[in-house]
UniProtKB/TrEMBL annotation:
<keyword id="KW-0808">Transferase</keyword>
<dbReference type="InterPro" id="IPR005814">
    <property type="entry name" value="Aminotrans_3"/>
</dbReference>
<keyword id="KW-0032">Aminotransferase</keyword>
<dbReference type="Pfam" id="PF00202">
    <property type="entry name" value="Aminotran_3"/>
</dbReference>
<dbReference type="GO" id="GO:0030170">
    <property type="term" value="F:pyridoxal phosphate binding"/>
</dbReference>
<protein>
    <submittedName>
        <fullName>Aminotransferase, class III</fullName>
    </submittedName>
</protein>
<dbReference type="InterPro" id="IPR015421">
    <property type="entry name" value="PyrdxlP-dep_Trfase_major"/>
</dbReference>
<dbReference type="GO" id="GO:0008483">
    <property type="term" value="F:transaminase activity"/>
</dbReference>
<comment type="similarity">
    <text>Belongs to the class-III pyridoxal-phosphate-dependent aminotransferase family.</text>
</comment>
<dbReference type="InterPro" id="IPR015422">
    <property type="entry name" value="PyrdxlP-dep_Trfase_small"/>
</dbReference>
<keyword id="KW-0663">Pyridoxal phosphate</keyword>
<dbReference type="InterPro" id="IPR015424">
    <property type="entry name" value="PyrdxlP-dep_Trfase"/>
</dbReference>
Amino acid sequence: TASAARVRGGRPMQNDAGHPVRYPEGNVLLRHLARDFPVVSHGEGVYLFDTQGKRYLDGSAGALVASVGHGNREVAGRIHEQLLRVGYVNGTHFTTEVTEQLASRLCALAPEGLTRAAFLGSGSEAVEAAIKFIRQLWVERGEPQRAKVITRVPSYHGNTLYALSLSGRPHYKKFFGPMLSEVVTTPAPYPYRSGLEDYARDGADHYARLLEETLQREGPGTIAAFIAEPVIGSSAGASPPPPGYFARVQEICGRYGILTLADEVMCGCGRTGRFFASELYDFTPDVLVLGKGISGGYAPLSALLVRQEHLEQMRLGSGGFMHAQTYLQAPAMTAAGLAVLDYYERHGVVANAARVGQYLQRRLREVLLPLPFVGSVQGVGLMAGVELVEDKASKKPFERSRKVVEGLLSELFAHGLVLWSNTGHADGTNGDLVMIGPPLIITEAEVDELVEKLARGITAFMERL
Ligand code: PLP
């Protein structure tokens, strides 16, 4: 915490704009030492309740996790049944029915060719494993010089050291400099600040050209992989790609043999209104990772999906992928994934996300865009972002020192609406961003409540500002 740093005489780091980096509340592991949190007693659907009896509309499903809502008895019951049978086996010795079923069901839904799955505990772990998989493949193919990964800015791929290296969020990295790995970056599409007159028409060409330039500069034969979130999550407030973008990316990467990795940790599992976001954008990656909504928060779980032919190359070479962790495919975790997937199918959750998602996107634009200080609303399905700016005409962001998004979100929180924040333009890439991503079971009436509370909150907060 800031006070602990003072006690030890620590100095705050500075960001590129010369402002001190103070992690906003919500970003530091030990922040519970610094502030009293409400104590949550239980949840029900899209609502959370604290021990004081206060009700919160969970407009961001936590961190876009609680896909099937809170207090879901059907899901909890299925996990309970599995726990009574067996909760843990060593994933390098055994498999279980829940793990096998989850793997085959996910692969049946997955973009073409992704027919093999493995399960880990978090999005960051899945990203790490995906990168190691790709790297091992290149070594086994006799191209060990392919050791660079291209990532986009802004982006977020996790908080372990390599996943953080891949994350296009400079201020997250500030303290860890020499311990991070070198990666190659290229700009990510963000409609509001693309500088293009017609983003939909010219976006794909524009960003494809930038990628091609990056490749030529680095030497395409040294590149192992290109990683992207099909819809950029927390770092750009739900930014979808311009039409045709992934077809161009795929064509360019294919030309140089570069493997593609889709990070669907946030945008996957129905969030966009399709189970896989890649599908929505005609992206057929070589490797795909899922997390968050896959278990809806009922257990830690992430998935790594790869191609049979790549695994086969390893089997014939070294014998297999060199990776294991204690909680690899633990049935306590995969049972949660299977229960959530069954719940999705039984209750039409993805179809609900598509239908109510369209409604959310329309209502957010209708209600928020006319407000002063709302620069843009973007997103797809039940994943949306709002960028607040000081001046709509010039798109000038608020001074970071004013902590606009932090102030707004704590006011909304006080009024019982939980949304997620990006930490504003600490990276200089955008203004203050609010992230919306409710449970996928949300109804239109609950969307009305969310949008109304958000609009009222923005108006009241900005008037005072
Ligand atoms: N990738 C994306 C796109 C994410 O949004 C996140 C988390 O927010 C991660 C990876 C990391 O996942 P986890 O926090 O489960 O490690």
